Amino acid sequence: MTILTETKDGPLVLSPDQVEELGKALDELRAKVVADLGDRDREYLYSIIKAQRGFEIAGRGLMYLGFLPPFWLAAVAALSVSKILDNMEIGHNVMHGQYDWMREPGLNSRVFEWDTVCPADQWKHSHNYIHHTYTNIHNKDRDIGYSILRMDEAQSWNVLRLGQPLYAFALMMLFEWGVMAHDLEVENIVRGKRKWSDIKRLVAGQWRKAGKQALKDYVVFPALTGPLFFSTLAGNVAANLVRNVWAYSIIFCGHFPTGVQTFTEEETADETRGEWYIRQMLGSANITGNKLFHIMSGNLSHQIEHHLFPDIPAARYPEMAAEVRALCEKYGLPYNTGPLSKQVGSVWLKIFKLALPPALVKSEPSPGVIVMRQRKASEVGV
Q1: Domain range summary for the chain, segments of one domain joined by +
Q2: pLDDT tens, 249-288?
Q3: Disulfide engineering: 188 pairs with which of 45, 76, 78, 193, CB 3.0-4.6 Å?
Q4: Cβ contacts of residue 178 below 8 Å, gap of 6+?
Q5: Where in the numbering of this chain does the Fatty acid desaturase domain appear (predicted)?
């Protein structure tokens, strides 16, 4: 693989040797952090779990005062924070195996379950395996648009794409349900490529998990507040919506803003370790913010580092980011980052633009890095 980076002086060519040097440097960075994992990381995770449980207890308790608007709003806020922490800084990261080294039974990636409708085992297949292995590869990574949205010019257009902004809004509001349905491959069911026998086990697991979640949030806890049943029900619905909108926004900003690159199967065939690393960097974007913002995003505000090192505790990404960025500068690679407002605006602009027929939309400029396959002499007739 040869990497060409456009500069004011023309294309900068990274040789295969340079690509592997970059890969080796990233391997060394990973090894350095792994060797340093210990009490600091353990205590950090426990502190986040303690905070998450505290916010949940506060939110559930304040619902008993939900007849007073200020307390209802405080309850919704507390529950929203609890659900965001559970899903993003705890659940997502624990299920990536980031804390398996602790040998804490309840925090092991194989058994952990999170507070959302998607069964953990199905999410780990669609996300940990499919997405992180085939990041941004067309016809491989189903996270490119989640089989609902056209998020890249290489994806086909048809008249149904005109409704894309509405589909995106619906996905944002119902994000946990969209994540749950992702592993079903609904588009393949519609096309007749998947049969009931293929998804029977998945549907059974979803029914069990979603049923428990719905019972907890929409029946049991509202019933416990007696005459405030409907007030509590509305509060739980609101907290889930806040969590959905936040998770959708963070995740989309890490994958789809302007400058994020996609790839073909041909381009990525027989990748070396260094080439895999480069694909992760070109196919991701970061979001700038303060420490609290990074915690609330599950440190997925460092999506570049997460794609490079998915099994490293996410709280380490901020300190790793400086070295990753320095390597990008050294080798002429872009480091896509910006404030939340910029990245969110970029994503929604893309959603609206790619809903239109290609003939009406100006093509996006190249993100600056072109991944080209080296061809054997026999392939070019030499």
Answers
A1: 22-48+90-353
A2: 999 999 999 989 999 898 888 888 999 999 999 999 999 9
A3: 193
A4: 146, 148, 171
A5: 71-337
